[in-house]
Amino acid sequence: MEYLIDKEYEDVRLDKFLRKKLPDMALTEIFKCIRVGKIKVNGKKSKENYRLQLNDMVKLFFVVESKKCDKNNNINKINSEEFEKIKKYIVYEDDRVLILNKKANMVMHKGSGHEYGVSEVLKEYLNNPNFNFVNRIDKATSGLVVGAKSLVVTRELSEEIRERKVDKKYYILVEGKVKRREFQIKSYLKKLEDKVVVAIDAKRREDGESLSFFKVVEYGKNCTLLEGTLGSGRTHQLRVQLASMGNPIIGDSKYGKGKEKMMYLFSHYLKIEKYGIEIDLPIPKEYIQRLSK
Question: Considering 70, 138, 194, 280, which one is annotated as catalytic?
Fold first, then answer.
């Protein structure tokens, strides 16, 4: 078996390419085949971290036996109702990306008791195994998530996100009245078992500097609607920082009281300047209703 490398897999590591093409083969076995020359690039032994170039020829000198059923014979657990449901949440699509308005408590990926998530549904819906989300939000968080339709676009957008060239804003409903109309929070966060906490002594390298910007949008009876912008992208950043100042996000079961059906954290704005995409969703009706309680 042999593969001619096209634009889709250009600059992808050899081991990652092979994991994609050989899903039933253990990674240790893939490494062994590379090491002993059962897998060669352009007729020569290579390293697992070699980055593939356009028109490289990857050749396998063994027979690949798939343990998976043929797609036509496989009983697909994702039915047409799921496809119709997911279509309602697509807010933008072109030949490169698909942008989804994820609902609160919607699972992004299979695992943890779920046979499939949004990612698996969209792979089937698009008939595209290379579809990947380039940004992730917590299960309890709702709003805009970006999916790339090719590995090339995945790499491009991942780089844009790392360089902070993709703008995102959130509507956040918090407990209590926030006095300052505009403010920023700078703190150092560290992971502690299953939670993230504010580091008191931030000298250690793993304690990442986190910066967020906020402004008040509207006041409710005993709550405040904020708009938040990330200056960095740490795990649970907005949730931890707002809880630490005494205004946890309403419905946050990990860092707040959590006595709600949903967590009021909504990714409403997205701008990808490289692709000329800008989306701004309105304040959800649930937030407006909660403000008036």
Answer: 138
